[in-house]
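Something for you to look into today, if you have time. Could you write out one complete protein record for me, on any chain you like? The space below this message is yours for that.
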Amino acid sequence: MDFMTDLDVQKYLEDGYVVLDGLLTSQECDELRQRMVEIMDRMDVPEHCRTTFSTYHDEQLKTQGNADYFITSGDKIRFFFEKGVFDDKGEFIVPKHRSVNKVGHALHAYEQLFKNVTHSPKVQGIAKKLGLCSPVILQSMYIFKQPGIGGEVTPHQDATFLYTEPLGRVMGVWIALEDATLNNGCLWFIPGSQKIGISRRMVRTPEGTFPLTDFIGKEQEYDEEKFVAAPVKKGGVVLIHGEVVHRSAENTSEDSRHVYTFHIMEAQDTRWSPDNWLQPTEELPFPPLYPK
């Protein structure tokens, strides 16, 4: 029995997303969360996060530090923090483990447990069911959505950041390691919005210029009424079409909402834009999803 049914495929193609229960067992979710605790125990807090500002110039250096740290994170495991978790001396004002917004972008390459999940038979089965011939992994992230401070993610399309020609070659695989509910910031989608194209792109700027990335075009205005919530149980997965409009609210609850997510691209007859912030490197070409 396929993990993904024909009906699921139909829903994904029509709505631009589909929720599937039971990709991981509860125990597998807990193992990934435990491994992340260990990774954070060894965490190096980058200097730019700790900088205290006094002048406009210092502020610029911090911004530049942030940008460098982000744009070179495609083949590394790096830490991105929630706003307001450091005091003016660069020390944590909330417990360290509750300060991180996300960890990215190469867990799938360097962390065995995350690699196993990414290349699991069920994930490969999903890709085959969707007819993908030579899917590759672009990036991966662990997202925390911390209790009380997990920030909102405004409406966007993943193709804004992960642009391909033609469009429609990228899919997000969003795995709930805890229940994602209306209270703790589950995803919301505009069903069918993957058919409208994209109006905004994030691109690398020419070398030697700052900022390192810029936006072309702007995000459309979306009708709040059209968003539909997609709660998902622990161990479930949401498949996200690269052009579907989605968002998540801030987390004002007492519960975290841990997620492991990664993006797959059909590499056959696809051009990955050299303007994307994320680029394959010699150390880490985009790894194929299927075994060679």
User: Anything to note?
Assistant: The radius of gyration is 19 Å. Helices lie at 6-15, 26-41, 47-50, 56-71, 107-110, 112-118, 121-129. The chain is about 25% helix and 25% strand. The first helix runs from residue 6 to 15.
